[in-house]
Structures are given as structure tokens and as C-alpha cells.
Amino acid sequence: MPDETGNVEMETIVSLCKRRGFIFPSSEIYGGLGSCWDYGPLGVELKRNVKNAWWRAVVQERDDMVGIDASIMMHPQTWVASGHVEGFSDPLVECKACNRRWRATDLNGNSCPDCGGELTEPRLFNLMFKTFMGPVEEDASIVYLRPETAQGMFVNFDNVLACSRKKLPFGIAQIGKAFRNEITTGNFIFRTREFEQMEIEYFVKPGSDEEWFNYWVKQRFDWYLHLGIKQENLRLRQHGKEELAHYAKDCYDVEYLFPMGWAELEGIANRGDFDLAQHSKYSNKSLTYFDEETGEHYTPYVIEPSAGVDRSVLSFLVDAYDEDLAEGEIRVVLHLHSELAPIKVAILPLSRNEKLVPLAREVYTELRRNFMTQYDDAQSIGRRYRRQDEIGTPFCVTVDFQSLEDNQVTIRERDSMAQIRLPTKELVRTLQAKLGGEPFATQDLWTAKTVDALEE
Ligand code: GAP
Fold this sequence. Notes:
Elements: H1 10-20, E1 23-25, E2 37-39, H2 41-60, E3 65-67, H3 77-81, H4 84-87, E4 89-94, E5 101-103, E6 123-126, E7 129-132, E8 142-145, H5 150-154, H6 157-164, E9 170-179, E10 194-204, H7 209-226, E11 234-238, E12 250-258, E13 261-270, H8 274-283, E14 289-291, E15 296-298, E16 301-308, H9 309-320, E17 321-326, E18 329-334, E19 345-349, H10 357-368, E20 373-375, H11 381-390, E21 395-399, H12 401-406, E22 408-413, E23 419-423, H13 427-435, H14 451-455
Parallel strand pairs: 3-9, 19-20, 19-21
Antiparallel strand pairs: 1-2, 4-5, 4-6, 7-8, 9-10, 10-16, 11-12, 12-13, 13-16, 14-15, 17-18, 21-22, 22-23
Helix pairs in contact: 2-9
Glycyl-adenosine-5'-phosphate binds at residues 148, 150, 180, 182, 191-192, 195, 197, 199, 264-267, 304, 306-308, 310-311.
């Protein structure tokens, strides 16, 4: 239940996700595995839609971006050059009484938050997961599960440059899994040990980096707003000098007001020439750019917008969650942007009457060719609307007895609960337009008629 400020509790979201098949605890029948989660039938659609919306905005609709999909395991030298072997660690403290481990930077005092026990001195704990490649478990065969997708793009800088013949500024985008052996996890899918990132490495001429940095901060902030996140729940926070990562010249976090408070959703960093220069040094390969206009060779600077897929999914769910009153009852509704909604249209025959079913199935077959569509004929129309509202389905299409005579059906919109009636042959085109953002207004040509009236 949202509190008086409209904020929803994490428990409400976790419970909705489990009940409706968005997200389940991993390997739950064995008691679950700490901080690992499985995306269910609706979650996988939502997550895929988030990734597609990102890819569309940063690759498909731009001239200056291309995508790659690098392997999760990379040459171990990658992580020496990037600084992860040496420095990708958190200070870990352990409670001498209950043995619980904590990230020192998460604590306010000097005692264990659980039992008040005395804590050990902090020691550095590397967050990369290690494994062995091949049958022999020896130091020479150690490989790491990548802790970020970024390095796959730096090591492919030259390959991409050669095949795409891009000129600066240009960027590489990638979506993929990353792994971190986080000391403390929690807050549902906010901090986990296995997660997905959507990262851009945008290469620019040194000197133009600050301008491009500001450009990307705005682009990325606006992306969340465009997909429906409320302005008051989103803010930018610049990193202080002491907080900047070893490679960063400047960094902004896009923060979201999660149920547990403001926290990072995405980081946008100006990484200077650190990464290309390091990989060039460790690989002995030149990773410079030849500028045809000036006749110079130089190492490009890079601007890196780095977003978490799972954190984005969480913020979209939290932001969309609402409870309002419909016909005197509390209605749970997810006001998800239509681009993100897992199911775009539900087809609801007024009843299971054998005369209605063939037409309803025919409409369903036509709709599912175009949209993720669900067919639901169980229980009353009201109950079915509630089920679709709760999973964020923007439109429900109802087939009734009158449809058999006039070949018209009713569309009902999730947010306003308004309804319009229209010829079946207009359905796909109309839904395409409405899902694309056309306002849902009753038009003269259609007789507005509520399905409830038809049901009587
Ligand atoms: N290449 C830069 C980089 O990885 P980061 O701030 O460590 O920067 C970027 O991570 C984004 O990845 C974060 O803003 C967050 O959305 C996501 N992320 C990082 N660690 C995560 C974790 N343990 N669980 C879920 N998402 C995480």
C-alpha cells in the first residue's frame, strides 16, 4: 500500500512480482540462493522491453553508435590493465560475535548493526568472481567473470573502428551480464551478485569531452523521463573528488527514489583516455585514432553512461505502482509506459459461450501477430480487467454478443478505464496508434458503450 507521500514499500513490489510472475527467488524449492533472482513470464518481457527501449534509443535511432556482444570471460590481462585485479575491492569487516560480514562503507558506527558485537579491522576484498578455464585448477588458468561489460568494448575499439569506419565522435553499446561478489546485497534486485548492465563507451576528441559528458548526462536523464519515470523521483548527483573512481575525471549518478531512499540507477563518467591507454600499454597494440582533418594520431577520451538493467526494471515497477478506486473497490494498477508493458493487449470474450469463442479466437490470432497478447476468459469481466491492470496491460479488447452482429469490439484503456467501440478490422491499426502514444479519446464514429452495460 503506498504511504501518504505515494511511496510504495518494497515488500508490496516483491509480493506483486512473485504473485504475478515477474520475479521469483532463484532456486526457491531449495530455499533460494542469496541475492539471486529469476525473471518469470512477465518479468522476462518487461526486462526485454527495457533493453529494447535502450537499444532503440542509443543504437537504432543514432548514426554514431554501433553495438557489440563480447564474451563474459576475457583474457585475464584485461583485468590487470583495467585496474580491477589491483583495485576492485571493498573494505570488509567481520563481527567477532556473530561472524556477519559488512561493507565498512555501509556502516555508521564501529559495532555490528545486527548484534552490536565488536568488528574486525577492515580488509580489502576483491569483488571479482574467479574460476578456472580448462581441466587444471592452477593460477595460470584463472579467469574472471566480468564485473562490468565496459572492458569488452575497450578491447574491441580497434576492431569496431576498422569494420564500421566510424569517425569520432562515435560510441559502442553493449548489454550483458556482469558479476560481482558483493559483500552486502539486498533490496530485492537492487544489488545482486549477478546482474545485467547496459553500457555505452562514447569515444571523443580530447578537449571536446566535457561538452559530450554534459550531453550524455542530459540524454540519459531524459530517457527515464520519456519512459514515464516521474520527475520528482529522479535526480542527478555529481560525485565529490574523493568519491571518483581511479579512472574518472568527472561523474554524475542518475538517482531514483527507491522505497529504501535515493540510490544510484546509472552512472555517467568521463573516463579520459585511461582505458585505451592502459590496454595499449598492456597489449602492446596501438589504440589510437587517426584524425584525417588535423593529420594527428591521438588516444580518444571516453564518456561512459553505465546503467543497470535490473535496477531500471525495479525503478519502472516502483514508479508505475498505484492503487486507486474503481467501482468502489481498491484497484492495483501498474501505469507502465506502453513500450515497457509486458502484455500490450488482452482479449476478453464476454463469456465462454460457444458462439462467441470463434470470433474471440480469430481476433486473438490477428492481434498476437502484432503485439504480445493474452487471452483471458476466466471469471467476470471486472475481475479480468483488474488482473490486467495489475500487470500493466495498456488495453483490453472485449468481444460480446453484439460483436457477432456488427463486427465491432470494445477497447478499454487501463489508466482512464474509458472505453471505445470500433470495427474489428480497425483494431490493429488503432491499437498500434494508441500504443504509439495517440490519445485515447472517444470518437464520434464510435458509439461509446460500456461493457458492463452489455453484460447486464
Ligand atoms: N563500467 C562502469 C560501471 O560498471 P558501476 O557504477 O559500478 O559502473 C554501473 O555500475 C551500473 O550497474 C550501476 O549504476 C547499477 O545500475 C548497475 N550495478 C552495479 N552493481 C550492481 C549490482 N551489484 N546489482 C545490480 N546492479 C548493479
